[in-house]
């Protein structure tokens, strides 16, 4: 088992393109990445074609493509991974939405992205739009939602990652959750 400092060193070597560091690190991170992907997909419809393994692989490819990233530790890596997974789901939803609307995009047999909220299927785009709106006036709260909802991180891990107290994270989580519920409810009502 690797120590936290060994993981940090390997993460930064991996970001610099060191393939040996990547192959040493991946077995230690893969299980948690898979758990994050499963959480991202847990509310999907049963016939969804995107599986956690594919989401992990797509996110990992995007993460390793950014050599300018400097990892501040394990929790920073997982928080960023959750953000990238959200982007992957949003991209697939946009692609599917364009195809459904007769867009010129070619159909790629990868995946659709939907999340069920309160029993009503809603495009990931609705959640992404709400989170983007929240980022506009409360970026820290949006980051807390992303880390908590998508990465499943604990309050303490989020606090460490953001450099704030657990109490502040908990307050941000409660406020952001209430705002998002109101925003998504308003979105659902206006789409009917």
Key terms:
mainly alpha, globular, 2 strands, 4% strand, 192 residues
Description of the molecule:
This protein is mostly helical. It has one domain. It is 71% helix and 4% strand. The protein contains 8 helices and 2 strands; from the N terminus they run ααααββαααα. It has helices spanning 4-15, 19-41, 52-65, 74-100, 124-137, 139-150, 155-162, 166-191, and strands at residues 114-117, 120-123. Strands 1-2 form a two-stranded antiparallel sheet. Strand 1 and strand 2 form a beta hairpin. Helix 5 (124-137) packs antiparallel against helix 6, helix 5 packs across helix 8 (166-191) and helix 7 crosses helix 8. The N and C termini lie far apart (52 Å). Mean pLDDT is 76; it is low at 104-122.
Topology of helices and strands:
Elements: H1 4-15, H2 19-41, H3 52-65, H4 74-100, E1 114-117, E2 120-123, H5 124-137, H6 139-150, H7 155-162, H8 166-191
Antiparallel strand pairs: 1-2
Task: Characterize this entry briefly.
The protein has 192 residues and is mainly α. It starts with a helix and ends with a helix.
